[in-house]
Amino acid sequence: MAGRGKLIAVIGDEDTVTGFLLGGIGELNKNRKPNFLVVEKDTSITEIEETFKSFLARSDIAIILINQFIAEMIRHAIDAHMQSIPAVLEIPSKEHPYDASKDSILRRAKGMFSAEDFR
User: Scanning 50, 62, 66, 84, which has the fewest C-beta atoms within 10 Å of its C-beta?
Assistant: First the structure.
């Protein structure tokens, strides 16, 4: 990894992951593990959570993008992640629009500032 940047990982539906892969984010680490997971109807919550935790443990990943509707399935694991790197960002999917009220990272960030900080 010397001289190389860190990766973006994606956990999402087929359309989301395909879009990011076409954008060039797909990589395999030295153990031949990909930096993405396509979540389908038959993907278990355990598999999603294990993949999320494996991305958290990887030193080559700086950002984890996850569809918000999938993040809801493993909310407890996302809420337990308190480190700044890798950053976890919840993104919308084609069928599920973004809902800021469900985004635990955004709620945490809002708690750091008061309305007077922006005046």
Answer: 84
Polymer length in residues for the chain: 119
Task: Map out the domains of the chain as residue ranges.
Answer: 7-109
What is the tens place of the pLDDT at every residue in 37-83?
A: 999 999 999 999 999 999 999 999 999 999 999 999 999 999 898 88
Architecture of domain 7-109: 3-Layer(aba) Sandwich (3.40)
Report helix, strand or coil for 100. helix
Q: How far, in Å, CA of 59 to CA of 65, rounded?
A: 16
Alpha-carbon separation of residue 108 from 54, 78, 103 (angstroms): 23, 12, 9
Q: What are phi and psi of 4, to 5 degrees?
A: -110, 155
Burial 13-35 (b: 16+ CB within 10 A, else e): beebbeebbeeebbbeeeeeeeb
